[in-house]
Specification:
The protein has helices at 10-13, 16-28, 33-43, 51-59, 63-81, 120-133, 151-163, 183-191, 206-212, 221-225, 227-233, 250-268, 297-310, 324-332, 369-378, 388-391, 396-405, 412-426, 430-444, 450-464; strands at residues 84-94, 137-142, 173-177, 197-198, 239-242, 274-276, 315-318, 337-339, 382-384. The chain is of the alpha/beta class. Strands 1, 2, 3, 4, 5, 6, 7, 8 and 9 form a 9-stranded parallel beta sheet that branches. Strand 2 (137-142), helix 7 and strand 3 form a beta-alpha-beta unit. Helix 5 packs across helix 13 (297-310). The longest helix is centred in the first third of the chain and has 19 residues, at 63-81. The termini are far apart. Bound molecules: S-adenosylmethionine. S-adenosylmethionine (SAM) binds at residues 103-104, 141, 143-144, 177-179, 199-200, 202, 218, 244, 278, 280-281, 283, 286, 321, 360-361.
Length: 472
């Protein structure tokens, strides 16, 4: 097997030998200041870096250069994403699963976890609860089970979610995190109007991947790794990739992740829409210390910074697997989307107390959505509930060109302010409402075009009068 970024074979575009050579090369140059300076100079052009150069930055052991890496990541994040943070919540539909993933409590051999699958009535109740928190964007999650959770079930759920209108609420974007499937099924998901199709690679190391997935359809490394190519063939052009950090060596995973992004860009002309950086967490019968690749919070943040520099146009997602403290640090370095008020159990949003019996992993940040919104604003961010891009046809390379043209500030920024205004009126506590109004007043001035600023002012008045869902 030889490395070939354009190959459609998993083991050629995620090539073990190339990854090992990359990690070795990075280790050999971790103190090579001349090379690191040269890489940083190129990175400052904001056109990204390939997996080799980015791996050298990740390995760098010079304190001054590490600080430069962090500063550059922060600056790139500001340039492309401003101070907006998009909010979403996961919605667990079913924990029936036929796979044997060793890190996931939904694995088939787990006989004591309660198995649950939402009926359409229960999906509707969960959606009402999520709308009442203020959510507009969901990521649906399900185990893999062709009998209990066939694609028809997932499609029914998507239809139900989009159909629920409760008070001023609406779910305007449904992202989908389900197991690798066929081109035909991806086409059906695309036709159902999904946002991003998300699938974590878990680990790019084939040998370890096969050991961690000993049974079930997910055992097939090639089928899993080539899923995004099938998704794109099925018409989905916003795909989200990710690694479950802790399963394998982080430097190996980092190189694999970037090689995957390079492959999608080379073959389909558009890289991943998002990259997620989950870490293995404690869950029902799962003990994260069983996997001896856990990484420090510092290295975790460095990975995020290096991803930001390597793929400036790709959104980055951090979930409530991480504590408020880690989230605060990592958001600054390049994260553009976070979940808030999450429950990782099937049917969890309808319960008064957080249920643990069907949870996929323990949540470290258990604040309410209002508390998360409040915290973000106090830290200088604009919480955004925007879902405009894919509804305006700005997906795939059309989204990327918006990013590259710098027009985001005339588009995403106003959309963030208008959707924040909706949240403040419909769902926020008094304190959050007060801070939010100040944020909006201040941030309107940062819309570059005067004409856009005037329209936003008019629309904010209309939102206060009861109108909803304005967007650029
Ligand atoms: N079942 C689908 C699949 O196999 O891709 C996707 C949904 S699964 C509910 C979502 C993700 O949760 C998995 O891809 C995995 O990375 C992550 N996950 C599983 N167990 C976890 C754990 N113990 N801690 C943190 N994340 C976990």
């Amino acid at each position: 097997m030889k490395y070939d970024v354009r190959s459609m074979k998993a083991e050629e575009f995620i090539n073990d030998e190339e990854i090992r050579e990359t990690v070795k090369y990075a280790g050999e140059h971790k103190n090579d200041i001349e090379l690191i300076d040269e890489i940083l100079k190129r990175a400052k052009e904001r056109k990204g870096l390939n997996h080799r150069d980015a791996s050298v930055l990740l390995a760098c052991s010079n304190e001054d250069k590490i600080k430069e890496i962090y500063d550059l990541a922060e600056q790139i994040k500001k340039d492309f994403y401003g101070n907006r943070i998009v909010l979403f919540a996961p919605l667990y539909l079913s924990n029936y699963c036929v796979n044997g993933c060793l890190y996931c409590p939904y694995h088939m051999k787990n006989k004591h976890i309660t198995r649950k699958k939402l009926t359409q009535e229960e999906v509707a109740r969960e959606v009402v609860a999520l709308q009442d928190m203020g959510h507009k964007r969901l990521a649906i999650e399900a185990g893999e089970d062709p009998v209990n959770n066939p694609i028809e079930y997932i499609l029914d759920c998507i239809n139900t979610i989009y159909s629920i209108r409760h008070k001023n609420g609406a779910i305007r974007r449904v992202n989908v995190n389900i197991a690798a499937t066929t081109v035909e099924n991806y086409r059906r998901l695309h036709d159902a109007g999904i946002g991003t199709y998300i699938l974590f690679q878990e680990t790019y190391n084939k040998k370890n991947y096969e050991a961690l997935h000993p049974t079930g359809p997910k055992h097939d490394y090639a089928y899993h790794t080539e899923a995004m190519d099938r998704a794109m063939e099925g018409g989905i052009d916003d795909v989200g990739i990710g690694v479950l950090f802790g399963l394998d060596n982080y430097a190996y995973e980092f190189a694999g992740l970037l090689m995957h992004a390079e492959h999608l860009e080379a073959v389909h002309g558009v890289g991943p829409h998002t990259i997620s950086v989950p870490r293995v967490k404690h869950a029902d019968d799962i003990d994260p210390t069983d996997f001896d690749n856990s990484l420090s919070d510092d290295m975790f943040c460095r990975i995020a910074a290096c991803i930001r520099i390597a793929v400036p146009y790709t959104g980055m997602i951090i979930s409530t697997r991480e504590s408020a403290k880690v989230r605060e640090k990592i958001i600054r370095l390049g994260v553009s989307q976070i979940s808030g008020g999450s429950r990782t159990s099937v049917g969890g949003y309808c319960e008064d107390e957080r249920p643990h019996d069907t949870e996929q992993f323990d949540v470290s940040d258990d604040r309410t959505l209002d508390e998360v919104v409040n915290w973000l604003m106090r830290a200088g961010y604009i919480p955004s509930f925007c879902t405009a891009c894919y509804r305006e046809g700005r997906t795939g390379d059309r989204f990327m060109s918006l990013c590259k043209s710098g027009q985001i500030q005339n588009c995403c920024h106003p959309n963030a302010l208008m959707t924040l205004k909706e949240f403040l009126i419909d769902y926020a506590s008094e304190d959050t409402g007060r801070i939010g109004e100040e944020v909006i007043e201040r941030e309107i001035e940062n819309i570059p075009k005067e004409a856009v600023r005037d329209i936003v002012r008019e629309r904010l008045v209309k939102i206060a009068e009861g109108d909803r869902d304005f967007r650029f």
